[in-house]
Specification:
This protein is mainly beta and 117 residues long. The chain has no helices and eleven strands.
Length: 117
């Protein structure tokens, strides 16, 4: 079992920045892919960014490329999402997820990000 706890969400003005943190426990992440997803009211959950723990390779949704950065801290078993130049359309609940198989197997409880005009 893996427990994922997100933090760092909040209210920010457009153009501002936030850093989300996902702290993992219960299992080593060395063979995982970690992802950030988000879900806005009335919308389906969508992929935001992912990182392969083993080599640090990353991927991003087109909508956040150049603004968001995903990173990891091996020692702390933690994943981060640095979000810069935030826009109102980034408003959503952000979820951290861990993939060990062909799908994301574990999910956090989510953290709210609200970007005002």
């Amino acid at each position: 079992q893996v427990q994922l706890v997100e933090s760092g969400g909040g209210l920010v003005q457009a153009g501002g920045s936030l850093r989300l943190t996902c702290a993992a426990s219960g299992r080593t992440l060395s063979r995982s892919v970690m992802g950030w997803f988000r879900q806005a009211p009335g919308n389906e959950r969508e992929f935001v960014a992912g990182i392969r723990w083993r080599d640090g390779s990353t991927s991003y949704a087109d909508s956040v490329k150049g603004r968001f950065t995903i990173s990891r801290d091996n020692a702390k078993n933690t994943v981060y999402l640095q979000m810069n130049d935030l826009k109102p359309e980034d408003t959503a609940v952000y979820y951290c997820a861990a993939q060990f198989t062909s799908t994301y197997d574990y999910w956090g409880q989510g953290t709210q990000v609200t970007v005002s005009n």
